[in-house]
Amino acid sequence: QVQLVESGGGMVQAGGSLRLSCAASGVTFSIDGMGWYRQAPGKEREFVGGILWWNSGAVNYADSVKGRFTISRDNAKNAVYLQMNSLKPEDTAVYYCAASRFTSVLAKVEYWGQGTQVTVSS
């Protein structure tokens, strides 16, 4: 099993920045992909971005956050980060850390964090 714990959420004005962190524990050697999803009130959970844990560390992003959000990883700390810049009110959501074995989190999510609230005021 893998446990994921997020931190770094909060409230910020439009145009501001936040950095989310996610620490993985447990059977972390089995992880192949990590990343982030978000869920706004009344909407379905959606993919934000993902990174492959080994080899190339290839990343991919949802179109809505490209150029504003950056995912990075620290394999030694079993951590993944989401740097969010130029935040917009429509980025307001609960952000969930996600992890998968054998594939990217865009394809499949096996483990979820508890979520952290991000609120962007206009």
Q: Spans with pLDDT under 50 lasting ≥5 residues?
A: none
Give the fraction of residues assigned to helices.
Answer: under 10%
Q: What fraction strand?
A: over 45%
Count of helical regions: 0
Shape: globular
Radius of gyration: 13 Å
Q: Give the mean pLDDT.
A: 94
Helix-strand pattern:
EEEEEEEEEEE
What is the distance, rounded to the nearest whole angstrom, between the alpha carbons of the first and last residues? Answer: 40 Å
Q: In summary, what is this structure?
A:
This protein is mainly beta and 122 residues long. It has no helices and eleven strands.
What secondary-structure arrangement, pairings included, does this model have?
Blueprint: E1 2-7, E2 10-13, E3 18-26, E4 33-39, E5 46-52, E6 59-61, E7 69-74, E8 79-84, E9 93-100, E10 111-112, E11 116-121
Give a description of the structure.
The strands form two sheets. Strands 2, 4, 5, 6, 9, 10 and 11 form a seven-stranded mixed sheet that branches. Strands 1-3-8-7 form a four-stranded antiparallel sheet, with no helix packed on it. The chain has strands spanning about 1-5, 10-15, 20-25, 35-40, 45-50, 60, 70-75, 80-85, 95-100, 110, 115-120. A hairpin with a 6-residue loop joins strand 5 and strand 6 (about 60). The chain is an all-beta fold. It is globular, with a radius of gyration of 13 Å. The protein contains no helices and eleven strands. The mean pLDDT is about 95. The N and C termini lie far apart (about 40 Å).
